[in-house]
Amino acid sequence: MSQVIINEKYSTLKEWITSLPSTFSDEGEVIYKARNEIRRITHEGTTFCVKRYHKPRFPNNLIYTFFRQPKAIRAYRNAELLTCEGFSTPEVVACILQGHPLGYSYLITLCSPLTRRFYEFRQHGIEGYEPLLDLLGTMAGRMNDRGILHKDFSPGNILFDRIDGEWKIDLVDINRMYFGPVSIHRGCRNFARLWGDERLLERVARAYARQRNFDEDCCVELSIKAWKKFWKHRK
């Protein structure tokens, strides 16, 4: 038995949405496939991103039964909250729980118009991208000021592009969020997964510090220390 939550704006698509669990593997094009799978699907002239979360295994199925909401619902609710607070993420359309807690769950959103990811900074410097990095640091600071922290703040989850001459950022994969006070240490440690070099970290950290009225040099030091520790462990 499935549970479906639909954004009222897209209530006319209910029949198509509820059919997705049975048609998912045959529709659209695959844009990501590992434990989870994401497909780009066009319906009635609109392009959607449909993410199918893998089936929970023991003991996670017990955790999702009694203690934690499924990822699709968390991502759906977090997107609503981020949008309400003025932060950009692809608009949510619906989420589906199929045979909860043992079945697949699905998240349907509009596709972001932003096509680039922060993975690019592994291969090039920051020249020409300073305003974008300032925007990222300022946005992270504003989120933390509001008691919101993206717990998977990694390059693949930060979309960006220049539209009409202005840099734009969308956050994706937002099922893992923290809500509550964010200290300077926790906020700066959250940049540890970013790709690039120390100049990138410094630029982001200084913009972050200015937004939160923290000491800039302290934020730079904390951010780079956490970044080096994370990547040393990864290697």
3D structure, described in words:
Helices cover 37% and strands 25% of the residues. The protein contains seven helices and eleven strands. Strand 3 and strand 4 (46-53) form a beta hairpin. The longest helix has 19 residues, at 216-234.
Write the layout of secondary structure elements.
Elements: E1 2-6, H1 14-23, E2 29-33, E3 37-43, E4 46-53, H2 60-66, H3 71-84, E5 92-98, E6 105-110, E7 116-117, H4 130-145, E8 148-150, E9 158-163, E10 166-171, E11 177-179, H5 184-189, H6 198-212, H7 216-234
Antiparallel strand pairs: 1-5, 2-3, 3-4, 4-6, 5-6, 7-9, 8-11, 9-10
Helix pairs in contact: 4-6, 6-7
Short description:
This protein has helices at 14-23, 60-66, 71-84, 130-145, 184-189, 198-212, 216-234; strands at residues 2-6, 29-33, 37-43, 46-53, 92-98, 105-110, 116-117, 148-150, 158-163, 166-171, 177-179.
> With helices defined by DSSP (H or I, 4 residues minimum), what is the helix count?
7
The share of residues in helices is 25-40%
- Uncertain stretches of 5 or more adjacent residues: 60-67
Radius of gyration: 19 Å
Q: Biggest sheet, strands in spatial order?
A: 1-5-6-4-3-2
Query: What sort of overall outline do the alpha carbons produce when their principal axes are compared?
Result: elongated
Order of H and E elements:
EHEEEHHEEEHEEEEHHH
User: Given the helix and strand composition, which structural class is it?
Assistant: alpha+beta
Summarize model confidence as the mean pLDDT: 92
